């Protein structure tokens, strides 16, 4: 990783690099320019998808600091909680997961996977997602007082250390684009949740001096709330890695919460169906369907290449368990306003 000489200690979990594939049928369907899919759904660590990447650095750092219990959390459908439980197990440390959701806290595949990997689930008892990070810190403090060595990690693993995973992913992508297309990508489209993936991507692109535009599709929070979070995270990550600061002018955050977190609109489902029926991509309602809905609409309208030679890259972040859980469910009646 020539552009990133100061990456933190890493616990190898994934099978990286993930493939960067052509998308000829999708491209024909959209009538657009060069298009590639970054297959992080094939990241190779369980079904952790993109969350493999932050966990490699979070657990590498935890091991380096003698941590004996990882405390983190998320929702009942969260890919990250299942992935964190597995990663902690591989690192040889315990794991506690604070999970939001009241009556809805059912035996979802992701929670079942987390429990199968030996994690202790701490139900929050209500749907206030923002409380997870507070309770994670409180639980870590309790464990510390009891003589344990906990690491508290916010939802999604979105810390400066976790973001290093996507800084590395950016370098991986640029390397692949140069080899395959002879140019850096014109733009990258990805879903934006807790922000670590987008922040890391900005760091890796800036470190390489790439002019690539990042189109981040916010599925959880309004842009005015999540954009400063992403940029703060990116700045802290760049400072820790000793690289150039992220370029704000290369980030566009699109509000695509639609009917709500985890709920796809009819248009999102149509985009997922197009991805499935052209390139065999399985997208989840929470992240993939929404990011692809925005990307496909822009590509159809010819808006994403900005007249640049490089490809547009659609980042398939994974979400397999969630995608299979909700496949075939009816779309909610309400659409539109977040
Ligand atoms: C499948 C999938 N895609 C995208 C994201 C969003 O990534 P981030 O939280 O780093 O913004 C997540 C977060 O959990 C995810 O599970």
Automatic annotation (TrEMBL):
The keyword Nucleus does not apply. Residues 13-318 form the Tryptophan synthase beta chain-like PALP domain. Pfam families: PALP. Keywords: Pyridoxal phosphate. It comes from the Bacteria. Its cofactor is pyridoxal 5'-phosphate. Gene3D superfamilies: 3.40.50.1100. The keyword Protein biosynthesis does not apply. Belongs to the ACC deaminase/D-cysteine desulfhydrase family. This is 1-aminocyclopropane-1-carboxylate deaminase/D-cysteine desulfhydrase. The lineage of its organism: Bacteria, Bacillati, Actinomycetota, Actinomycetes, Pseudonocardiales.
């Amino acid at each position: 990783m020539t552009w990133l000489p100061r990456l933190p200690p890493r616990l190898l979990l994934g099978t990286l690099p993930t493939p960067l594939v052509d998308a000829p049928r999708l491209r024909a369907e959209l009538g657009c320019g060069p298009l590639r899919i970054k297959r992080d759904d094939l990241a190779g660590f369980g079904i952790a998808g993109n969350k493999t990447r932050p966990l490699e650095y979070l657990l590498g750092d935890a091991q380096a600091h003698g941590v004996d219990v990882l405390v983190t959390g998320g929702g009942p459908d969260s890919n990250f909680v299942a992935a964190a439980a597995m990663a902690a197990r591989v690192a040889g440390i315990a794991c506690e997961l604070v999970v939001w959701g009241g009556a809805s806290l059912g035996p979802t595949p992701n929670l079942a996977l987390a429990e199968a990997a030996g994690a202790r689930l701490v139900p929050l008892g209500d749907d206030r997602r923002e409380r997870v990070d507070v309770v994670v810190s409180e639980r870590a403090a309790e464990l510390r007082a009891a003589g344990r060595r906990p690491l508290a990690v916010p939802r999604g693993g979105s810390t400066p250390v976790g973001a290093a995973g996507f800084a590395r992913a950016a370098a991986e992508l640029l390397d692949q684009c140069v080899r395959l297309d002879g140019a850096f990508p014109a733009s990258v489209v990805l879903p934006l949740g807790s922000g670590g993936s987008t922040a890391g991507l900005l760091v890796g692109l800036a470190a390489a001096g790439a002019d690539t535009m990042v189109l981040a599709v916010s599925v959880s929070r309004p842009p005015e709330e999540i954009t400063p979070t992403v940029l703060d995270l990116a700045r802290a990550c760049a400072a820790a890695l000793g690289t150039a600061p992220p370029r704000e002018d290369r980030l566009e955050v699109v509000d695509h919460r639609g009917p709500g977190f985890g709920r796809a609109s009819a248009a999102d489902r149509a985009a997922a169906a197009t991805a499935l029926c052209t390139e065999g991509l399985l997208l989840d309602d929470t992240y993939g369907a929404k990011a692809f809905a925005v990307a496909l609409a822009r590509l159809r309208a010819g808006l994403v290449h900005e007249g640049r030679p490089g490809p547009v890259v659609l980042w398939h972040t994974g979400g397999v368990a969630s995608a299979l859980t909700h496949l075939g469910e009816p779309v909610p009646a309400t659409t539109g306003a977040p």
